[in-house]
Amino acid sequence: MLIEGPVEFVTADGRVVRSDRPVVAVCTCRRSLLYPFCDTSHRRRRRPDESSREP
């Protein structure tokens, strides 16, 4: 998810994480090693090819 920055997050363990970038990519899949920021780890998992699915 892309949001306009700068942003500041408070994580579940109480840690404050800040980004001063004008646009921030936020992880919504929880696979990122940089959570709460996206590191594109979600790209490693591929969905089944929809064209090969039967209706």
From TrEMBL:
Residues 4-48 form the Iron-binding zinc finger CDGSH type domain. InterPro entries: FeS-contain_CDGSH-typ, MitoNEET_CISD. It holds the Pfam family zf-CDGSH. The keyword Nucleotide-binding does not apply. SMART domains: ZnF_CDGSH (SM00704). Keywords: 2Fe-2S, Iron, Iron-sulfur, Metal-binding. It comes from the Bacteria. This is CDGSH iron-sulfur domain-containing protein. It comes from Streptomyces aureoversilis.
